[in-house]
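Work through this:
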Amino acid sequence: MSQTVRILIVDDHAVVRQGTRGLVETAPDIEIVGEAENGAQAVERYRELRPDVVLMDLVMPGMDGADATRAILVEEPSARILLLTASVMDERIFTAIEAGAMGYLSKSAAGKEYVSSIRRIHAGLPAFPPEITQKIVERLQGVRSERWPLAEELTPREEDILRLVAQGMSNRQVADTIHIAEATVRTHVSRILGKLQVKNRVEAALWAVRHRLVDLDSDDTP
């Protein structure tokens, strides 16, 4: 099976789409399969192309990136979406992340950061820079308290696994780190999500940060 990552670029400015294309398509494992110029078109193009990763601009006329992210993920919960915006303070970032977007990247980031974030998301790992992670946690302290009640107590093993997941490790990396079977890690992760009452690994990672199971300033993230 090909390891090429198929990308859909979504932005309302043609020059930005072209610039994004130039930043990422030099990577040998990345292929641009389509473009969209607004949110509604992004939803249609996603249905048509089924890309591996969507690079989603947030600020667009009509259906913006947050609404398009939600619409895509309602149809296809496994969709992998990387948000692109010029402002870390844009409220739509939080809306899109709560809908299930797996990462955030500033439009001013270097090409290698685009490629690295795309590869992480394609591997099923969250891709949030430390500064946006901190802002997400601060934002969620109040608005998510009703959805993040006191969790059912985690076992010491589950806490260890959650820390590693929050550092961005895949199930295979977790298994190799603590020397257990990958299938066992999958079982633990499923139980952790249930106990924390969260939908996915991204929300679990944010829960871990909020509850100080991981250090935002740590350099251990792979």
User: Anything to note?
Assistant: Confidence is low (pLDDT under 50) at residues 143-150, 216-222. The beta strands are 5-10, 30-36, 53-57, 81-85, 103-106.
